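Ops channel
N.P.: pipeline sanity check, posting one input/output pair.
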């Protein structure tokens, strides 16, 4: 019997990629206006900073505060730029196909755990907008464990809290290395959402497909 399902947040439950790039560009345009420089030039500079630090597991180095601070030393402007991102995310983000319907299905004794390396303030926007606390038994963010993904810590906290058998869990996300590989090594079932990856046990594009998977598997 499945004891728990570990869900990634961004681009799995929430369609972040459809909104975030435009929100980030809006923030850069705002900072460029304040700094009296060309938006495209500042955008390229910011992308270089992001690229340089994309492999870091340190949440502070991967934060917007860190990368924006490389472009602008005015904390007030940075805060205003980030607030602008929050507003766009709150207005335009949506749940991915089938997610709303899936989470209305009674889950019985199965634990639902949300794991996210999202920036804390953006994480709060999504949790509040979609009332995610109503669906999950535990939400684990990078601030809780002090690391970006992949990290065993995202799972250990739930395994220990609920006394779970890692091999009797489902691990679902949009990226195999970040969201599924650790679970696979523990003997669990892996599901890729929205992408194709033959390493995963299942690939889905709608959360209602997850309901069918739960009926098929017997661990």
């Amino acid at each position: 019997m499945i004891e728990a399902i570990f869900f990634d947040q961004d681009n799995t439950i929430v369609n972040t990629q459809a909104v975030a790039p435009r929100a980030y560009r809006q923030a850069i345009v705002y900072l460029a206006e304040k700094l009296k420089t060309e938006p495209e030039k500042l955008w390229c500079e910011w992308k270089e900073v992001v690229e340089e630090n994309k492999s870091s597991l340190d949440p502070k180095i991967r934060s917007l505060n860190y990368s924006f601070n490389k472009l602008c030393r005015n904390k007030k402007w940075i805060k205003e730029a980030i607030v602008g991102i929050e507003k766009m995310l709150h207005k335009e983000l949506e749940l991915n196909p089938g997610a709303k319907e899936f989470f209305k299905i009674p889950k019985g004794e199965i634990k639902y755990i949300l794991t996210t390396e999202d920036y804390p303030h953006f994480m709060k926007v999504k949790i509040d907008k979609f009332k995610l606390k109503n669906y999950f038994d535990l939400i684990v963010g990078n601030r809780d464990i002090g690391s970006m993904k992949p990290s065993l810590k995202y799972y250990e906290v739930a395994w220990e809290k609920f006394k779970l058998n890692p091999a009797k869990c489902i691990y679902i996300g949009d990226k195999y290395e970040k969201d599924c590989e650790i679970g696979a090594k523990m003997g669990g079932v892996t599901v890729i959402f929205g992408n194709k990856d033959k390493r995963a046990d299942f690939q889905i594009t709608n959360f209602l497909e997850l309901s069918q998977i739960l009926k098929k598997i017997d661990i």
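N.P.: looks fine end to end. The chain has a mean pLDDT of 96.
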